[in-house]
Amino acid sequence: MTSGDDSRRELILRVATSLFAALGYDSTSASQVAEAAGLSVEALGAEFDGKRELYLEIMEREYRAERASLVKALEGISAVTPEQTALVIHRVIDHYLDFCLAHPEFPSLWMHRWLADASDVTELERRYIQPQIDLVSSVITPAMEAGYVDADVDMKYAFWSVVWCVHGFCQGGVLDRDGNRQDAEDPAVLRRFRTYLHKMVHRVAALPGPPPS
Asked: What does the record give as the DNA-binding region (predicted)?
């Protein structure tokens, strides 16, 4: 494959990612992708064998990017003391929020799936969500077994609460008293939301020390 072919393929992936994130898989046609990329449907078909293959490659790329980011966030730390346990958990929170802000298409693609988008494309949750849960669990579970986290806390739901909150914030922001939408572009709004996330999980898990401010 030539560099020209590589750049064309990358263009298609970039355009399709934006369309799938904005409209959803079901509401995006191959002809829309081709038109947005400035290509013919035939040229698109020469690169990808249909919309499904294109979607699968995009979701694979998104997973690999998030996986690499999570691995880096957890690199060099372990939950072997109560304080380190708190550090790991707060680092996971920051990782997920920062990744979603840097890759806004990521929460959008998954929120579409929450609404049954691309329901005929199965196994994505098992292939791309479960490994992330397993990675975080592999770090946190020993700390829970050692009693560093309140035994009554459901950490799976605590982390899912972070996911739900982050996706909602990234997609919809919050409303001020006048009904105007505020989002992460306002540093004060982002700082307030980040602090809320940390305090929410810190208190639910009864972690040692004060939460990050």
From this structure: 29-48
126 and 103 housed in the same domain: yes
Closest CA to 141 of 71, 78, 51, 99: 78
The enclosing domain of 199 has a CATH number of 1.10.357
pTM above 0.85, yes or no: yes
Strand partners, 182: 174
Q: Is 112 exposed, middle or buried (0-12, 13-18, 19+ CB in 10 A)?
A: buried
Q: Under DSSP, is residue 198 helix (H, G, I), strand (E, B) or coil? A: helix
Burial code (b: 16+ CB inside 10 Å, e: under 16) for 96-109 equals bbebbbebebbbbb
Total of domains in the chain: 2
